[in-house]
Design goal:
It contains four helices and eleven strands. The protein is of the alpha+beta class. It has a single domain (2-144), classed as Pnp Oxidase, Chain A. The strands form three sheets. It has a seven-stranded antiparallel sheet with strand order 2-1-5-8-9-4-3. A two-stranded antiparallel ribbon has the order 6-7. The protein has a two-stranded antiparallel ribbon with strand order 10-11.
Length: 188
């Protein structure tokens, strides 16, 4: 899951988004779809950059916070969490991995608008000791692959593993095909 934040005209907001996709490797590009009914969308249409936060499996509260209400419902939504101003003023939510993307284009996609982003910066969040302990003592169903360097930081490609039946799902834009990817394909 992803939370996208934006800043414009002295206002800031962030929301949980349901539709995202890496859409180019060279040059690196990422697509974010924002609902037209969301206050974050109102800011994003005027912003020249957005910050995309990747939520970890243990960040349910963050997902609920940004997915459960809109700034229209609670104008002080960002006051309920720790954040700092990031690139172009867009909020960086504490504890989340994130990348900032310069908005290259916007495409109307019905009730959502696609924002085509060029990554311009990224950072991995440090985990707390309690999060590390929880992870190290949790029961693992399958062995994890060897850690790889953060693909966004090294080369601009953003890969998010998908636990479950498949190791990852390649989500494509609506006009392209999507398919499940086996572990052997990810290691090549």
């Amino acid at each position: 899951m992803f939370v996208v934040s934006a800043a414009s005209g002295g206002d800031v907001d962030a929301c949980l988004v349901g539709f995202t996709s890496q859409c180019s490797i060279d040059p690196p590009r990422f697509a974010v779809f924002l609902s037209k009914a969301n206050h974050t969308f109102d800011l994003a249409v005027h912003a020249d950059a957005l910050v995309v936060h990747r939520l970890r499996a243990d960040q349910h509260e963050v997902a609920e916070h940004f997915g459960g209400t809109s700034a229209y419902d609670d104008p002080a939504k960002l006051h309920g969490c720790e954040w700092t101003p990031g690139p172009r003023g867009a909020p960086i939510v504490a504890g989340c991995d994130w990348f900032a993307g310069r908005v290259l284009q916007q495409f109307d996609a019905g009730d959502h608008v696609l924002f085509l982003l060029e990554p311009i910066g990224a950072r991995r969040a440090r985990r707390s000791n309690s999060a590390r302990r929880r992870r190290s003592t949790s029961r693992r169903v399958a062995p994890r692959p060897e850690p790889r360097p953060d693909p966004l930081v090294s080369g601009g490609v953003y890969v998010v593993p998908h636990p479950g039946v498949f190791d990852a799902v390649v989500v494509a834009l609506p006009w392209a095909k999507s398919r499940a990817v086996e572990r052997s394909e990810l290691q090549s």
